[in-house]
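User: For a benchmark we're assembling, each entry needs the component sequences followed by a predicted structure for the full assembly. Here are entry 17's components. Please fill in the structure.
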Amino acid sequence: MKTAPQFQDFPNPNPNFEDQFAYTTTHHHHDQLNGSKYFRDIFNYLMSDEDLEELTSDLHSRTASENIADLFDQFSSSAPFVDHNIKRRRKVKIYKAHEEFRLAFRTRSDLEVMDDGFKWRKYGKKKVKSSPNPRNYYKCTSEGCSVKKRVERDREDSSYVITTYEGVHNHETPSLNIHISSL
DNA sequence: CGCGTTTGACCTGCGC
DNA sequence: GCGCAGGTCAAACGCG
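Assistant: Structure for entry 17:
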């Protein structure tokens, strides 16, 4: 029986997500985050059993845990990795190990910016190649905190917003308790 | 005035 | 090197 990790266990929780995903991390956080087990928990947390089942059927006839284990193995490879066998809306990307913890959400939303409890200052906007939608860059304004996030619309389905967090906050979520208590 | 956004310039890594 | 793509800087600007 799997126990879902608690919301506050994640370094950069986003109270607004309704559709996953992706995750990734770092070597120097590996130990403290308990390595791949941590990511497995994230997957279990972000994906419902139904999603895991779908992932399984998409990736041949193997079990979800086997497939996920493979995804984590890919994690240590040098090149970014995209599994196209998963149907488009369920696409999972595994980026190469980074120096910072990275967590991405893909959310169906009309709003570009969502209140995730942190204060952000926009510091850049860039048009990315092969996407009609610009990418926006934000940095956490909390003193000494170097967490960044990128926000852009899904190039394949602009009704989705992709938010990528990078880094771990060195402080608490200002209004996290409010979000949790309202669940 | 304080703080956040805008936006073109600048920087950097990578492939050729 | 050179050029491209993506990420960041920072001066100007906007707004309470």
